[in-house]
Amino acid sequence: MDDDDGADERYMELETLEAIFPEIQKHTPAPAMTTNLEFSLELPVHPANPVTVLFPAASDPANPLTTQDATTSAATAATAQAGDGPVDSHELVHLPAVLLRIALPPGYPAEQPPAVAITTTPPWLTPETVEKLERDGPRMWADAGRNLVAFDYIDHVQQAADAVFHMIDAAGTLRIDPSHKLAILDYDIQARRAAFARETFDCGVCLGEDA
Fold first, then answer.
1. For the whole model, what pTM was predicted?
2. Where is the composition biased (Low complexity) (predicted)?
3. What angle do helix axes 150-162 and 127-143 make, rounded to 10 degrees?
4. Domain check: are 98 and 154 in the same one?
């Protein structure tokens, strides 16, 4: 009986999420009484203001690419402005979306926390950022008294995405491994085009109505 109630809670939560986020993709065929109920959702990374993204040369020992070191980044930005460093800088409006995959185990929410996996294509988030986000799921579940937390967690990740996951350094720049440069620039271009196409369509409708 308890297992049935737990399963019902999982499905009810997922149904609510699907009503809010119709783009959710389910990965578990019903019923999932004894298995994880899994789904995924892509969250945009579209900060309010353009982000200055630096692609430091991979051979530059002063620019480790696995962490966001504010001091090093500030020095890198200053060097770039002086024209002495091999740093490529771009103003971006869109960064590759975050794919959030959540698994609700049979004991969720009363006994088991949600399992969370965070990925991006290309993998531009630092390992530390990914690990923290993935730990936040079980932490929020515990803080909520072992209650349903999927919506709150999705909202938490989206707010972090709006703040570029607090990866912007003291110099106001975001440093990303240069091996991801082409994919990231292409993503920004395609996202801008899609946004422009939507705006153009809306204006066309307005003009048609005025005529």
1. 0.79
2. 66-82
3. 140
4. yes
Residues 41, 24 within the same domain: yes
Same domain? For 77 and 62 the reply is yes
Is 139 in contact with 152 (CB distance < 8 Å)?
A: no
| Four-point Cα dihedral 120, 126, 128, 129, nearest 10 | -50
- On whether both 38 and 129 belong to a single domain, the answer is yes
Are 112 and 204 members of one domain?
A: no
